[in-house]
Design brief:
With 210 residues, this protein is of the alpha/beta class. It has one domain: Vaccinia Virus protein VP39 (Rossmann fold). The protein is built from 9 helices and 8 strands. It has helices at 5-11, 14-32, 50-57, 71-80, 98-102, 124-134, 148-151, 154-159, 170-176, and strands spanning 40-44, 63-68, 88-92, 109-115, 135-146, 183-184, 189-191, 195-201. Strands 1, 2, 3, 4, 5, 6, 7 and 8 form an 8-stranded mixed β-sheet that branches. Strand 4 (109-115), helix 6 (124-134) and strand 5 form a beta-alpha-beta unit. Helix 2 crosses helix 3. The radius of gyration is 16 Å and the shape is globular. Bound molecules: S-adenosylmethionine. S-adenosylmethionine (SAM) is lined by residues 1-3, 11-12, 44-47, 50-51, 67-70, 73, 94-95, 115-117, 120-121. S-adenosylmethionine (SAM) binds next to helix 3 and strand 2.
């Protein structure tokens, strides 16, 4: 589901960008570790592309494939990321089908980033399955998510639009990961039942996953 105007303003502004740069990115790197040299990365729901910029500059990815369902977001991201040239590929598409967006086969990426997007997807488990499919063995899924608890808050309900059914708690999100062959790394950072940040990897030696 696309963001409405209020959420678009809330998600791409100097305060959120500072939060993403100084809190979210360092927390994700602490939890999931650094990227390997030459890392090929996918970002789902890249929005206006500030997270993509951090994946390049802060995490040091060699190549980023970033997808968003909203053509307007991809246009904004294209402006922000023009200076990265071929290092960043952008596509309008669905996080649940990275084959359609980038021709991504199984095990294509060293890492996948989710900066607050899976809660926007009605069939959110399909997005988790797709993340697991495209990760290489040893690859890391870095996630920052918004829970059902936050989405049920009056402010969220009044201002923003999200799928209403079958949203997840932090535990439900974490419990879904092993069903797709992903193992949570260390502890997950939970913020007042509303947000979670964490990392999970696809263990080396795992073949097919559910
Ligand atoms: C809350 S915004 C987060 C944007 C960006 N990751 C950030 O942190 O600034 C959620 C984004 O997910 C995108 N989105 C929603 N459903 C999607 C889907 N099925 N596939 C890809 N992107 C999707 C929306 O268009 C929106 O840009």
């Amino acid at each position: 589901m696309l963001m409405n105007r209020a959420e678009t303003l809330a998600i791409d502004n100097p305060a959120r960008r500072a939060l993403q740069r100084w809190y979210e990115a360092p927390t994700l790197r602490r939890l999931g570790g650094p990227l390997p040299a030459g890392a090929r990365v996918a970002e789902i729901g890249c929005g206006a592309g500030y997270g993509t910029k951090l994946i390049c500059d802060y995490f040091g990815a060699a190549q980023v494939d970033a997808v968003d369902l909203d053509p307007a977001m991809i246009t904004k991201a294209g402006r922000r990321l023009a200076r990265y040239g071929d290092r960043v590929r952008l596509a309008v598409g669905d996080a649940t089908d990275l084959r359609a967006a980038f021709g991504a086969g199984d095990g294509s990426y060293d890492a996948v980033f989710d900066f607050a997007i899976i809660h926007h997807i009605p069939d959110w488990r399909d997005a988790v399955a797709e993340v697991a499919r495209v990760l290489k063995p040893g690859g890391v899924f870095y996630f920052e998510e918004v829970t059902a608890h936050a989405l049920a808050r009056p402010t969220y309900r009044r201002l923003f639009e999200h799928p209403e059914h079958d949203r997840f708690t932090a535990d439900q999100f974490c419990d879904e990961l092993p069903r797709h062959g992903l193992t949570v790394l260390g502890s997950v950072t939970r913020i007042s039942g509303d947000y979670l940040l964490g990392a999970a990897h696809r263990p080396i030696g795992t073949g097919e996953h559910a």
